[in-house]
Specification:
Blueprint: H1 2-12, H2 25-37, H3 39-52, H4 57-66, H5 75-89, H6 94-101, H7 107-113
Protein name: Lipoprotein
Keywords: Signal
Signal peptide: 1-25
Length: 116
């Protein structure tokens, strides 16, 4: 499903989840806690996410629509910021991450990307 692939790309591209399936629950919790306590680490994770993005214009257009952004908005940066913030705050859990690896998108992930 195109929507699922797009959201998975955003979550995987955060850079903080770069080890894909090799991230344990403990490692995920440690990353989330470090991000929560450090604005500098959150900025670095967002910057890494943006640098690692390889999405096509069509993919970015889909995300722009999903995220309710106006044309010309920096969709990649905003999606990275929202994903990193959600991981840092605990809103996106390890279970959410594992489900995304299985190609399952939850309404919560959509809400995070939409900024609500």
């Amino acid at each position: 499903m195109k929507k699922s692939r797009s959201i998975a790309t955003v979550l995987a591209a955060t850079g903080i989840l770069c080890l894909a399936g090799c991230v344990s629950a403990t490692q995920y919790a440690t990353m989330a806690e470090a991000l929560n306590g450090s604005p500098a680490l959150r900025r670095e994770a967002v910057d890494q996410c943006v640098r690692s993005d390889r999405s096509t214009a069509q993919h970015q257009d889909f995300l722009r629509k999903l995220m309710n952004l106006t044309p010309g908005s920096p969709v990649v940066r905003i999606s990275c910021e929202r994903a990193v913030k959600a991981v840092a705050s605990g809103r996106l859990t390890y279970a959410d991450y594992r489900n995304k690896l299985r190609g399952q998108t939850s309404p919560k992930v959509v809400r995070v990307l939409q900024g609500r």
